[in-house]
Write a structure and sequence with these properties.
The complex is a heterodimer of chains A (270) and B (142). Chain A has 14 helices and no strands. Chain A is mainly α. Chain B has 2 domains: 34 residues, no CATH class; 95 residues, no CATH class. Chain B has 3 helices and 6 strands. The chains are: A mainly alpha (270), B alpha+beta (142).
Chain lengths: 270, 142
């Protein structure tokens, strides 16, 4: 394994680790939840959400991801991490009485990871792609493209033309205006009185999401990641959310998938 | 057959499979249709949960031993709230730091309520805070 590939894997492992920690962080201590549902209504999951077990699980996943980055346990580690993530996301869904959308979004980086595991471990290498590693990387990129495209399509099908009603976004921004001090507070207040600007921003976001399929093309991945960075920065500024786990995953997959694998270098694949 | 498979664009195949899986199985892990902000139409009224200490909007974490604010006060029913996380935060804190009704009342007057917004021709208009429940609390020891 070259130094570049090791670095790429370490960066991707870090992005996944951030996503994993974020997902676990979303699980509030079960004692604070008045209405647990699903698995947590039947089995007391409180011990898993306390600081020591929580940080121990985080540390375990961190060590496993680093080992994977160093190419140890190439098959076992990814499958174990997938199973652990599945289990925890199941718990999380049970914990969130009303906010299942949060756990939905959190699974996106792991959907890409699962696609990578399937592609790199279970799909046969081909002449065009001389090693399974390439298949895995491409399949991971495919799920990222699907995630963003579906986010755009859901707006088209649910809201249609009314998505461009900037007054709705102005209302959302107004609700969040007092969350931050100046200058962000002033910018948000300004936007609440300019629904036209809000509509323009919403149009930009929709175009970016609907262009998610451009991420399928290797040469376009960094450009698309930059466009999503602009979109997420706008959301962060005006609404307060950044979705760092999605975006970091997208950038690291872009970098990882645009460089050659060992086998591609060996056969001189362009 | 194999000749076709070896030219398969794996990224596109994975994309199509994940989309189909998400349409069929979301929100079951690992499938998801991230439809955040896709329910914007008619969001012409808004409400933000607020916690008041001595009549002023404040951080709920500044008080302890809260008394007089029941669970039902945190119901979102009929409230156009798009900030469930803010409501949860106040709700969880109050639930965890409440004391029984027969405990001695605290020196601070606290309340939970909604700051309401509506759209007008000139933009977003903020309405007076509507208090849902009030009680007492002790300040958090420094």
């Amino acid at each position: 394994m070259t130094r570049l590939e090791r670095t790429q894997r370490l960066v991707l492992a870090t992005a996944l680790f951030v996503a994993f920690v974020g997902m676990l962080w979303e699980c509030p201590p079960v004692t604070q939840l008045p209405f647990p549902k699903g698995l947590s209504a039947w089995i007391d999951m409180a011990p898993l959400t306390q600081p020591i077990p929580r940080y121990s699980i985080d540390a375990l996943v961190g060590v496993l991801l680093v080992l994977w980055a160093l190419r140890k346990g190439e098959v076992v580690i990814p499958i174990f991490v997938v199973l652990l993530t599945f289990f925890l996301s199941f718990i999380e869904e049970g914990f969130h009485a009303t906010t299942a959308d949060v756990s939905q979004g959190k699974s996106m980086p792991f959907a890409a990871w699962i696609a990578y595991v399937i592609g790199s471990q279970f799909v046969r290498p081909t002449v065009d792609r001389p090693d399974a590693e390439r298949n895995g990387r491409e399949m991971a990129a495919g799920t990222v493209a699907a995630g963003y495209t579906m986010a755009g399509l859901s707006k088209v099908f649910r809201d249609g033309a009314s998505w461009f009603d900037g007054r709705s976004m102005a209302m959302m921004i107004a609700e969040r205006a007092d969350e931050w001090p100046d200058p962000i507070h002033s910018i948000r207040v300004f936007m609440t009185f300019h629904p036209g600007l809000c509509a323009a921003g919403m149009g930009f976001a929709l175009v970016v999401e609907l262009c998610g399929l451009t991420y399928l093309k290797r040469e376009w991945r960094f450009r698309y990641a930059f466009a999503t960075f602009l979109m997420h920065s706008g959301i962060r500024l005006l609404l307060g959310y950044f979705h760092i786990d999605w975006w970091s995953n997208m950038v690291t997959i872009a970098w990882w998938s645009t460089s050659k694998t060992e086998a591609e270098r060996a056969v001189g694949d362009p | 057959m194999w000749n076709a498979v070896r030219h398969l664009p794996y990224a596109a195949v994975s994309c199509a499979l994940y989309m189909a899986g998400s349409v069929a199985f979301a929100p079951r892990f690992p499938f998801a249709v991230v439809d955040m902000y896709a329910h914007m139409q008619d969001h012409h009224e808004g409400a933000v949960p607020v916690f008041l200490i001595d009549g002023r909007v404040a951080d709920v974490r500044d008080v302890d031993k809260i008394q007089g604010i029941p669970e039902i006060a945190f119901s979102e029913q009929g409230i156009p709230c798009s900030m469930g996380y803010a409501l949860d935060e106040i709700h969880y804190y109050v639930a965890e730091h409440s004391v029984p009704e027969d405990a001695p009342p605290g020196p601070l007057k606290v309340a939970f309520g909604w700051r309401r917004f509506r759209l007008s021709d000139t933009g977003v208009v903020e309405e007076p805070i509507r208090v849902v429940a009030s009680g007492t609390a002790h300040p958090v020891a420094p």
